[in-house]
Amino acid sequence: MLLRTMAAASPRSPPSTPLTSQQPPSPPSQLPLRTMPGSYGWPVVGPLSDRLDYFWFQGPDKFFRTRAEKYKSTVFRTNIPPTFPFFGDVNPNIVAVLDVKSFSHLFDMDLVDKRDVLIGDFRPSLEFYGGVRVGVYLDTTEPKHAKIKSFAMEILKRSSKVWLQELRSNLNTFWGTIESEVTKNGAASYIFPLQRCIFSFLCASLAGADVSVSPDIAENGWKTFNTWLALQVIPTTKVGIVPQPLEEIFLHTWPYPSLLVAGNYKKLCNFIDENAVDCLRLGQEEFGLTRDETIQNLLFVLGFNAYGGFSVFLPYLIGKISGDNSGLQERIRSEVRKVCGSGSDLNFKTVNEMELVKSVVYETLRFNPPVPLQFARARDDFQISSHDAVFEVKKGELLCGYQPLVMRDANVFDEPEEFKPDRFVGETGSELLNYLYWSNGPQTGTPSASNKQCAAKDMVTLTASLLIADLFLRYDSVTGDSGSIKAVVKAK
Fold first, then answer.
1. What distances in angstroms separate CA 327 from CA 251, 320, 333, 480, one per listed residue?
2. How far is Cα 81 from Cα 232, in angstroms, rounded to an integer?
């Protein structure tokens, strides 16, 4: 998500029933040492079989669930795509970690290395980033990591001066488009208008670059990011809109070359080079980066982390709220208007007073994490603990956490398969934030140059909360689903 980076964290293990429905776990000192279950299978055959299960016969969720049930463990060995035939330099062997306790080891930088493991052992060509190895691929032990992470955090700090203004200005345009389409056609697809809104907002707030100075970038920049992102992640992602076996044959069999988007990506580089003047000066003069390193890292933060993350998260959030018929909208509207009055009082301080709004944001991040897979590599041999056992991990092994299951850990979350808008309200809800890991670390963690936690985790949740508050200052109700808005009732 925004700045895919991670922090050290080792949460305690709440007593309850584990994901695999075993007996309640023993205290850590009494946990048995268990031989890690699972298998990689025969070379080529095992990874290929797992690849077909992952993409075709089962899908990611069932893939991990069935193996956890089979092995009666939330920690086991298996394979994960991409694999044979055209990924000869990629090792698909992983140690899956599917509960909160084992997952937390992925953020302990004394135990794990994050060098080149953004998408597991597969790394897209560096030509996607102008040949620069951007900060997300650097481990915390690499000297340049601290420079790039500090640069990103400073950009975010400075952007706070215009963040709210730019967000609401672009939301004005977005909702104007939606209203017009609903009036004209009876419904409005909001995915592309929202992506355009996100792109314009992020360029202005993060990079200080106004897209209106370039009609081509304003019209096509967000489309370029969509293509740029897709080409990097499609080999590892179940798409679901192309029928099998076509998806398996044509989308998951080989890596895609950066040349397919190189021309349009170059336009984005030139746009940043010409318009993100203060950011570029900051990167070069204060953090010792070259101009090209500054441009490429800024574009990665802007396009992969921020735009990519918001493009997954915000549509799901809007769809969840607009499709709700449980009375949640009325409750949110009441809270927002009680805190903000006419709307002129909406700001970072007042939105932080909206407990229900923030809880809905947190629950959305728990229920549908924007980044489903998290990876880290063991620095040395060490012991990893689940709720009910301890396992030996070998130096160099790749750990993989499938976050949609981790965030449904019944040891931590009551009725984990249910979306509970109030889950994070009150003292108990605040305690649960210690186990909300959407940001590559706990929500209560603090990003720093020495860890890999999302630098913008607080801005992400604030932005989503502001979007909800802005929505219910504009409208009494919104009716829709995961892709379209069918009706809006303006605020009286």
1. 41, 12, 10, 15
2. 14
Helix (H) or strand (E) holding 376: strand 373-378
3-state secondary structure of 441: coil
Write the single-letter amino acid at 410: A
- Would you place residue 180 in the very low, low, confident or very high pLDDT band (cuts 50, 70, 90)? very high
The first and second tokens of residue 172, run together, are 């004005």
Residue 221 CA to residue 207 CA, distance in Å, equals 14
pLDDT of amino acid 372 = 96
Q: What dihedral angle (degrees, nearest 10) is formed by the CA atoms of 401, 402, 405, 407? A: 60
Neighbour count for residue 220 (Cβ, 10 Å): 16
End-to-end alpha carbon distance in the chain = 36
Partnered with residue 185 across adjacent β-strands are none
Q: Look at the chain and count its residues.
A: 492
77/66 Cα distance (integer angstroms): 13
Q: Residue 233: name the closest of 154, 142, 106, 123 by CA.
A: 123
List residues bridging with 75 in a β-sheet.
97
Which pLDDT tens digit goes with each residue over 363-374? 999 999 999 999
Place of tokens 């060995």: 77
Residue of 434 and 492 predicted with greater confidence: 434
Quickly count: other Cβ atoms within 10 Å of residue 477's Cβ: 15
Write down the pLDDT at residue 8: 32
